[in-house]
Amino acid sequence: MAKFFNEMTADGLAHTASAEVREHYREFCGWLQRQSAETIERKRAEADLTFRRVGITFAVYGDDAGTERLIPFDTIPRIIPAAEWKQLQTGLVQRVKALNMFIHDIYHDQNIIKAGIIPAEQIYKNAQYRPEMQGINVVSDIYAHIAGVDIVRAGQGEFYVLEDNLRVPSGVSYMLEDRKMMMRLFPELFARNKIAPVDHYPDMLLDNLRSVAPMGINDPTVVVMTPGMYNSAYFEHAFLAQQMGVELVEGKDLFVSDNTVFMRTTRGPKRVDVIYRRLDDDFLDPLAFRPDSSLGVPGLLSVYRAGRVTLANAIGTGVADDKSIYPYVPDMIKFYLSEEPVLNNVPTYQCRRKEDLAYTLANLPDLVVKEVHGAGGYGMLVGPASTKAQIEDFRQRLIAKPDGYIAQPTLALSACPTYVENGIAPRHIDLRPFVLSGKTISMVPGGLTRVALQEGSLVVNSSQGGGTKDTWILEK
Predict the structure, then answer these.
(1) Which fold has domain 349-409?
(2) How do residues 142-151 score in pLDDT, each as one tens digit?
(3) Cα diameter, the chain
(4) Judging by DSSP bridges, how do beta strands 222-225 and 274-277 pair with one another?
(5) Phi first, then psi: what are they for 49, rounded to 5°?
């Protein structure tokens, strides 16, 4: 019997006749048992061919085998009943609201520091802290307009927040394309199951971005700003611009004049009011940040500081998704909202603390250790899956720079039946819902389910060999 929570069956068995299927999976499971292996394999091949034809790929930096890869797509959906989604949605809205209040606070009155809840050095020494934002007001006090919050399930099925992605969260295009693919391959499933739609996300995103335009702009011009076609998420940048019906621009397409941002067009300069930027702070403005950046717009920060353009997400937002700040989010919720957190954090050891470092060093084989600025599954140690040599190498890194790491227990992530080479087997998953903040906080019922395709692996990142699934939220 499996030692992890199985999304489909109560006894951990993936697909056998004796497995006790959870109620919200029964309709799908009955359909699945009636399908032949040949039919499913043919549908998988059709999905791969279509994704490749459409160009739904991602780039892997440093990959000599080629710049573009397909993200493996699995045809067994992850299904969440309405009541569970309601709890998740409530917790996510609460969390993102508190995070936005925190970012506003640290760039203004800094009440949470004065109250002694977060040490000042955790903010000021943070690599993502931007002193240039101190005292700058942004529209509606919203900094993280688009948040991708990673949710995992462990234990007896409890939900935990694994991390908050507030800088340039990616993956929503795969959520949308996975749904489109499932509807194309298996239309009968959508006729028989009440599955909440997600295809209106681009409309919600555009409405959200327009709602935070600078004061006095009634018909704002919105653009998506990309680093260019060699960025790992370029497909998504182009996809979202196309779906929203707005221009996809690079830094070279924009310029600053009269303290205003303009876009070069065939009809002459056009004012830009809202920039959904998909590149990091450091590259936005060579006059303010990295002088060697050829990706940004000289003078952009001065226009931004004057309140004459909105950047989504705001400059300096990354301070709130740093893994060294993550342990304080429950305290933020209590401090700013006077509420108890709906969603729990994973227990976290901050290696900058002497006692936490000592515990981590003594228990490395059992822990997951992450770089506080790391992303994409890189720069981390999964103790139970590591060799003695890897553990000892990481031990030296920890001793050399303890404030660069956090540690967490190795969670037995929930699993969902997944098609693999030898049939159907459980594979570990997570979930990234996307939360939009503007005049209101909203989200589509769903998210990107990522799956670790290697047996026993807990790393779901696409750059580390993970795949994706469609996420069904059942309507009552």
Answers:
(1) Dna Ligase; domain 1 (3.30.1490)
(2) 999 999 999 9
(3) 71
(4) parallel
(5) -65, -45
